[in-house]
Each structure stands twice: as structure tokens, then as C-alpha cells.
């Protein structure tokens, strides 16, 4: 990654782009525990939140999931390309620090999930490896938002199943049926059409966004391999609790080496324009909410529901970003995005009906 000049360039009206998953996209794994239900601090204080009408609660959680996922994308885009905060690695590190602090409060204080501990040095290094892959994916995603629109970013991100199938075959030798692989063709075709017709296409932004998507897929496959034994399984909230501080420690020296004395630059900017403090704090908080709501949606619905919502989220985020940032779109680009989403839906259906070998 090439560092740019260490100046604060405010480019209002720019149309660059970045990824996100989120921020932070951690697949669910079953929680461990002895089966006893503990009374959490939050349930004592807010019993009306813990046990409202199930349908209302589920709707609120799904709404929060959409808000946080799309919100972090738009805030990342605004900070990195419109406001002119040109430090995606440091921004990702702030996300990790935020996730570490909020996760600690959620697990240890609010008792959202039972506390799970790292049981061995081997498990520690496994989680560290996941953190490294996670860092790569998120940094690439955030970097891409500086150069390409959110809509194009989401179109590329929709190709995650393609990379997941590739890594699953290369690493675990797990093959799918011919029908499953056939459904990946429209996924690739759609992104080719969208790329060829993207008015704001940027080669470097495209490459790092592909890297982010591949990294996210690789993390899912690797997580399924290295945390499979009963003694090592963790739910996503506890996994985030350990991954986030590791990721922050990994990102700090990289940020200093590539982006320079960004902490001093940020402090100076905050003294001149206090708005940046609110933007960074809000951005980091929403980045954690992505993970929290991801966990809650899966808990109150299912992993399949989350996958379906994710497909719809990409389209919603693309439309919202176009309305806000006014980046130009073409009919062929929209057709390509639509073909990719259709391919992802077909891929999900084919996998449900065709066991892997």
C-alpha cells in the first residue's frame, strides 16, 4: 500500500469509495457453556427490552442491523473521500479499539453472552491468525472507499461466495456440485459488466476491494478450520472480544509506517475542527454495532435469514449511497449489479439443496 502525502486534504464533493463490512464480518459459532441461564445486568435494568413482543424485537434488531451496516459504509466514505481524512489504516485501528472496549462492556458488564476464555496457547495463535486476515480484509475495504463509489464497492463485495468456494476447495478440498459452481457464473458475469460500465472506475480501488472480498471469504473458511473442536468454539461476541485488541496492536505499527504521525495530525485537526472528533467517535461506535446486530440477527432469526438480508443490504446501500453522494451510474452497471445479486441468491439456493463432498 503506498502512503500519500501527510496533509489534510478536504475534498468536499469527491466521489471516491471504500468497503466495509464491515466492517467486521464474523460468522456465528455456537456458544459454549453449561446450559444454565444467567441473569444479566441488562435484563435486570431493562426487562421490557429483553422480553418485548418477539416480532417487534426482531423487527427492531433487523432495522438496527441495516442502519449500522449502511451507516458505517456511508460514514467511512464521507470521512475518507469527502471530508478528506486520508488514513484508512488508522481509521480501521480506531474501529478495532472501539470494538475491544464495547465488547468488553457487552460481555463482562452487560452479560449479553457468557464469557468464554482462551484455553491454550495454540488457540491464542489461531485467533491471532484470524485477526491478521481480518485486518487485511477491513483495511483493504476501507482503502477502496477512497477511490470507488459505495455502490461499486457493494457490487464487488457481493462476489464473496465466489471466493469462498475457491478457498474452500483449495484449503479443505471440499467440492460442490456442478449446479452450485454454475450459479457462480452470473456472479462473475455481473461484476464484469458492472466494472466495464462504472463511470468512476479506479484500478487500485478495484484491486483492493477485490482483496477485501477475498480476505473476508478466506477468514470464513479459515475460521471454520481452526476453531472446530468443542473446546475451542466461540460465539462471535467473545471471538470479537479477543480479535479486536489483537487487530489494533497489529495495525498500529503499520499505520505509523505507512501513514506517518497520524495521531498528531488527527489531534491537530481536532483542535481546528472539533467535528472530526464526533465523526470518528460516531464512526467507531457504528462499526461495533455492525458486529453486535450481526450477532443478534442470527440469534433471533437464523444464519440463512442473515444471508438473505445481506443480499438485500448490498442493493439498499448502493441506492442510498447514490442518493447521498450523487455518483453517476449507468444502466449497464445496474444490470451487472442485479445479475451478481441474482447469482448470489441462486448460489445460496443451490447450496441448500446440494450437499458438498
From TrEMBL:
It is found in: Membrane. The keyword Transmembrane applies. The keyword Transmembrane helix applies. One of its GO terms (cellular component) is Golgi apparatus. InterPro entries: EmrE-like (IPR037185), Sugar_P_trans_dom (IPR004853), TPT_transporter (IPR050186). SUPFAM superfamilies: Multidrug resistance efflux transporter EmrE (SSF103481). Residues 1-34 are annotated as: Disordered. GO terms for biological process: transmembrane transport. It holds the Pfam family TPT. Residues 59-348 form the Sugar phosphate transporter domain. Keywords: Membrane, Sugar transport, Transmembrane, Transmembrane helix, Transport. Residues 7-17 have a biased composition (Polar residues). Its main location: membrane. It comes from the Eukaryota. GO terms for molecular function: antiporter activity. The chain crosses the membrane at residues 44-67, 87-112, 124-145, 151-171, 178-194, 200-218, 239-258, 278-297, 304-325, 331-348. It is a multi-pass membrane protein. This is Nucleotide-sugar transporter family protein.
Amino acid at each position: 500500500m503506498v502512503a500519500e502525502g501527510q496533509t489534510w486534504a478536504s475534498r468536499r464533493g469527491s466521489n471516491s469509495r471504500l468497503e466495509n463490512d464491515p466492517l467486521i464480518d464474523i460468522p456465528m459459532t455456537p456458544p459454549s457453556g453449561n446450559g444454565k441461564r444467567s441473569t444479566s445486568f441488562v435484563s435486570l435494568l431493562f426487562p421490557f427490552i429483553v422480553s418485548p413482543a418477539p416480532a417487534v424485537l426482531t423487527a427492531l434488531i433487523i432495522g438496527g442491523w441495516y442502519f449500522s451496516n449502511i451507516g458505517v459504509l456511508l460514514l467511512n466514505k464521507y470521512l475518507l473521500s469527502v471530508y478528506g481524512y486520508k488514513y484508512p489504516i488508522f481509521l480501521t485501528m480506531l474501529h478495532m479499539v472501539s470494538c475491544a472496549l464495547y465488547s468488553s462492556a457487552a460481555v463482562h458488564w452487560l452479560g449479553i453472552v457468557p464469557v468464554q476464555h482462551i484455553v491454550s496457547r495454540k488457540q491464542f495463535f489461531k485467533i491471532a491468525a484470524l485477526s491478521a486476515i481480518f485486518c487485511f480484509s477491513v483495511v483493504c475495504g476501507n482503502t477502496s472507499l477512497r477511490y470507488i463509489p459505495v455502490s461499486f464497492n457493494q457490487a464487488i463485495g457481493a462476489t464473496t461466495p465466489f471466493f469462498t468456494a475457491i478457498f474452500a476447495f483449495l484449503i479443505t478440498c471440499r467440492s460442490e456440485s456442478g449446479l452450485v459452481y454454475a450459479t457462480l457464473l452470473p456472479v462473475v458475469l455481473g461484476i464484469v459488466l458492472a466494472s466495464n460500465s462504472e463511470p468512476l472506475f479506479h484500478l487500485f480501488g478495484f484491486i483492493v476491494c477485490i482483496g477485501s472480498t477475498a480476505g473476508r471469504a478466506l477468514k470464513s473458511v479459515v475460521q471454520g478450520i481452526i476453531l472446530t473442536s468443542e473446546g475451542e468454539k466461540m460465539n462471535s461476541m467473545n471471538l470479537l472480544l479477543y480479535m479486536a485488541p489483537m487487530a489494533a496492536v497489529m495495525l498500529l505499527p503499520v499505520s505509523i509506517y505507512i501513514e506517518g504521525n497520524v495521531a498528531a495530525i488527527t489531534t491537530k485537526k481536532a483542535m481546528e475542527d472539533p467535528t472530526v472528533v464526533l465523526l470518528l467517535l460516531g464512526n467507531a461506535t457504528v462499526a461495533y454495532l455492525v458486529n453486535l446486530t450481526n450477532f443478534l440477527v442470527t440469534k433471533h432469526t437464523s444464519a440463512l435469514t442473515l444471508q438473505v438480508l445481506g443480499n438485500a443490504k448490498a442493493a439498499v446501500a448502493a441506492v442510498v449511497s447514490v442518493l447521498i453522494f450523487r455518483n453517476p451510474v449507468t444502466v449497464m452497471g445496474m444490470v451487472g449489479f442485479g445479475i451478481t445479486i441474482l447469482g448470489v441468491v441462486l448460489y445460496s439456493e443451490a447450496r441448500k439443496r446440494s450437499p458438498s463432498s
